[in-house]
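Below is the data:
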Amino acid sequence: MQALDGTAAALQAADAERAEQVGARQEQLWQACFGDLLENVDGPERARVVADLRALIEEHAPPASANRDQVSGNTFNGPTALQTGNHNRQVNRFGSEA
């Protein structure tokens, strides 16, 4: 809960010029956190965590666009690219450990 409170504080403290940058940084931090979480759980526990994260995303996702041919929500963090969308997820790993 402390990390979530820190994110809220950072977003509230950001001035108009830096709001987008601060938001992007917080998004990267949370994506890394969720990536670490998924890498460290297996089997039924992983399935439960994935289901919970999907439910959370659906609950807080913006309304679907009329134009469904758009790609959004893509990130590249180190050797892993993550793409999410309606009912799909794609993870591409780059490098010798891919």
Q: What stands out?
A: The longest helix spans residues 19-39. The chain has one domain: 2-93.
